[in-house]
Amino acid sequence: MSKFAQFGNDLYTGKRSIDFIGRRRTWYLISAIGMVLALAGLGLRGLNLGIEFTGGSEFRVSQVAIASDYEQQAQEAVHSVRPGQGVGVTKLGSDTVRVQTDKLDDAQSNAVRDALARSFGTSSDKVSANFIGPSWGESVSKQALKALFVFLGLVMLVMALYFRTWKMALAALVALLHDMLFTVGIYALTGVEVSPATMIGFLTVLGYSLYDTVVVFDKVRENTTEAFANRRSTFAAAANLAVNQTLVRSINTTVVALLPIAAVLVVAFLKLGPGTLLDLALALFIGMAVGAYSSIFIATPFLVSMRSKDQAVLDLDKHAARVQARTTRGTDSRREAAPA
Length: 340
Known about the structure:
The chain is of the alpha+beta class.
C-alpha cells in the first residue's frame, strides 16, 4: 500500500487526525483576509468586462505573420485614425490578431481596417470589422443573475429537506458565496477579462462546489447521528472525523477534475490564445480549486460554529466529556494495577 493510501486509511479509521474543527478560527482568518482582498479588488479596480458587456468595435487581422511588437503595430494603426483611442490587442492562435476599441462610425471603421491591413502587411479583406452592442452582454448578465438566485434558492430548499436542518443548508450556502467572492475577486485583482464564457464558468463552478460540500456533509450527518445515539463523542469530534474521512476523496476528485482543465489552459495559452475555451477553462480552474478549499475548511467548521450553542449539542458534549473522563480513569487504573 502506498504511503498516501495508508495516510488516507489512517485518517478514515481515526488513527491519524487533522484538527480542522479546532483550528477553524485560523481558516476563518485566512478566508477573511482573502475576501477583504477580493472586495478591495472589486472596489478599487473592478472587473475587466469584455466587449460583449461594454460594447465597441472589434477588428480581426487574419492569416498574418505576428511579430513580437504586434500590440504596438495595432495601436499605432488605430491611433493614426483616432488619436488617443483606447485599444485592446490580443493574439488569437498563431496567425490572428484581435483589436478592440470604443464604438467607431462606418468611416472610422473602414479607415482603421485599411490602417491595420497596411500595418500588418496584408489586404483589407483579411481584416474583419464588427460592432458589438452592450445589450447582448447585459441580457446574458441578467439571465445569469436570475439563474443564480433560482439556484441558490433551490440549494437552500433541497439541502434543508435532504439533511433535515436549515443550518446545514445555510453552511453550504455560505461556502458557495465564499467561492463566488473568491473567484470574482481573483478576476478583479488580476485584471483578466470577464466574458460571457466566464459567466457560464462561474455558474458551473457552483454546482461542483456544492457537490463536494454535500459529500462531506453526508458523512458529517452519518457521524453526528451516531454520536447522538451512542453519546461517546462530541459533535465537533464527530464532524472533524467526517472531514478527515472524506479528505483524500476530496483531494483525489479535485486533482482528477483539475488536470484536464489545466491541460486545456496550457494549450489555450500557448496555441489558441484568448477565446471562449480559455475563458471557460480559467473560470473552472479557479472556481474548482477554491471550491475544494471551502468544502474542507469552511463548510463543516461553520456548521459546527452554528450548532455549538444548540442545547442538544451542549448536552451531547457534556455527556461525551464524562464518558471520556471515565475511560481515562479506567485506563490509568489498569496501568497502575499492572505488575512491573
